[in-house]
Specification:
Largest sheet: none
Low-confidence stretches: none
Order of helices and strands: HHHHHHHH
Strand content: under 5%
Number of strands: 0
Number of helices: 8
Mean pLDDT: 92
Length: about 140
Amino acid sequence: MPQSGFYAKVRRGLPAVIARWLTLGQGDADRLALILAETARVAKLGAPEATPSGATLSAWSRADTGEEIPLWAGRTAVFLLVQMPARPVPADDDEACAWAYCWLRNRADEDYGSAAGALPEHLREPLAAALKAAWTDRQGLRLV
């Protein structure tokens, strides 16, 4: 089933998304955890029950799978990473799938072209295949 294969890549890529936020964010892990949770709440990207500790955020970045990482954390990390002047890009296919999935979950695009066109220029090529797979996955889920 293509959706489960894609979503498995998303879950495997989420720790790398969190790790990238920890690496590029300005501040210690506790401060970055606070920024992540507060941004999720303010930008309405999720509703964290509690603000995670820096130790929790660090553990999420090293997780064997992303199953233990709440989606709000990945969605918010991508939201913040996309806006960074450092112009970070995903390092591998799993991370790219996580970025693309979160990008689409953060938006309400009606068609693939508007979702792809809204990506910052530096992410268009690195996310091209993953965004197409994420769009296919999203459309498949709408049919259920």
